[in-house]
Amino acid sequence: MNIQFGVDYYPEHWPVQRWETDAKLMQAMGVQVVRMAEFSWFKMEPEEGKFNFAWLDQAIELLASYGIKSVLGTPTAAAPAWIIERNPEIQPTDPQGRRRHFGGRHHNCQSNEVYRAHVKRFVNAFAEHFAPNPNVIGWQVGNELGNSHNELCMCESCEKRFREWLEKKYGTIEELNRRWGTDFWSQGYQNFAQIQAPKLTVTGVNPSQMLDWKRFHSDLIVEYHQFQSKILRHYAPDKWITQNMMGFAETVDYFELGKDLEFSSHDQYPSMNMVREKPQYLGSEGAGQLDIIRGTKEQTFWIMEQQTTLNGWYEVSRRPRPGQIHLWAMQSVAHGADTIVFFRWRSCAFGTEQYWEGVIPHSGIPGRVYDEIKGFMHKNGTLMQEIKGLMPQSEAAIVFSYDQEYAIDIQPHHPDMKYVDHLMTYYRALYRQNIPVDLISDQSDFSRYKLLVAPLQYMMDPVLEEKYRTYVKNGGTLVLTMRTGVKDRDNICDSERPLPGGLADVVGLKVYDYDCLRQLQVKVAWDGKEYICDKWCDVITPDTAEAVACYASEYYKGTPAITVNVYGDGKAYYVGTEMTPDLADRFITEVGAELSLGETPDGVEITRRMGADKAYYFVLNHNGKEQMVNIPEGWQSYYEGQTMPMPAYGVYVYTEKVGK
Ligand code: GAL
Ligand code: ZN
To answer: Quick check: pTM over 0.90?
Structure first.
């Protein structure tokens, strides 16, 4: 399968007479694949058991005659009104026990057996019908699984499944009572039947129950995916299955979901990320989202929806500037996308997403966006074939954990503390210094990395503890942070020993005291320079660790904020606070400078995909103005005309001989 470019297409939104014009325009642009059908259940089953696949057959056929293959989504992200009318109980329930209603999308509970029966009937017919079609190359189950279901569903069916999940996990109610700490507030249970979903209470939640709920919910979505993937694989063992993931979205553990996919996909909307970006880190949010997707299976991936132009539902983003669409798509490629599918083909004339605009505007007349994407496809096809499957071979990694995220979500300590934001303080500093970084699961092999950053290892267990210990002992450089080893995996505080628990000897210190920075800024002094730190301060008592930087205010003034400890053949840093950008930059210079691919002005990133004998470097200018970038000797221009200064939103590609 040799496919680099595509678009998301909704032929059902347009008259059949227009389809051929679309196909011609797509072919001229360079489109090789379309994704279709993921929201068209009613169109395909207007009445129970009366299937109408003819329109989709026709679209697939027509596109194929222009050399365009199809990926089909099962349309289960939007059940038709006739199903809801008959079975209103499949609508999801919020923590207050209120139903959410028809009229948007995702209006289904994922555990409900009645809904599952509808899905089963439909997906069987759908898979049986399209499996033999050679122009259908792969599937997507539903759409963005987990989207809109953040705190849903707490219906009776989900509660029942939750109880079963708990019974399987704990075996006996006594064990659950012990591990949930139900002696607190008289929360003890006599049997599993008494357990509810963590619905709205009068006050407070049990953190252990809540953590299990989030895990259960993630497992349910993974199982829901398997429920459909089994049917698809039964009819089409030769076709692949992917899922359009959403970067740092946390509802589903993507490492787990990834196990049921041939490869991961992602929906990349940079203008949504950009609103969070500081000028010196332009491009970093998008980069982080891409790197986590690459981490889900530790392999290259597809972009199933790449932003084309202005977007929004009710309010809209800025229109991407000339060159910016190309830049964003190349950023996806630079971070590991082998295929870019642009969302969507044509701006919709009706519905919620009228202003989530497409390659072709409402009028149907191709303009700047079409030309720019066409230019992108024509220019980069060969390059993308060459780099297919190539990874960056990062020497630095950040450990990403849904479990830790869930626990921090439940108790963020500081009202502004967020797991991903904290992790991004490290990511952005690495990004700014052009250090390629993998975002990996804590189940992953650490030994490949020279530098391993493990933020907020809040819940610790003996196995993970041993992994970190071995990593450092064998020569790795590990960064651990504030709130390490606070709890066990049941979300119960470690009451056997002081913080940071079992890894105290690896970092060479203890934390007997800490402070939450509410309406408070604390200074950190490092080599005579002062920085600000944020949200939290561990008060560190070193054993064998040495101070790298010290607090310069508050009652813990003069005590270490950041330390380093030599352990075995490696060393372990401990960062007792959340670093602000300047401090994080200084820190990454300290721990990772030699891993940098080169220095660039703010907002210009360099990233890499590594072949056996050739490295490919991508220099991306996220700024709206020209930039001078020093290109290392030995790098060859991949394209002609890569002269300095780089244009605004410019993308340059270089290669370098490596190995042998
Ligand atoms: C994605 C989704 C698409 C479309 C798009 C624009 O999250 O997968 O179906 O909704 O956003 O809102
Ligand atoms: Zn439910």
So the answer is: yes
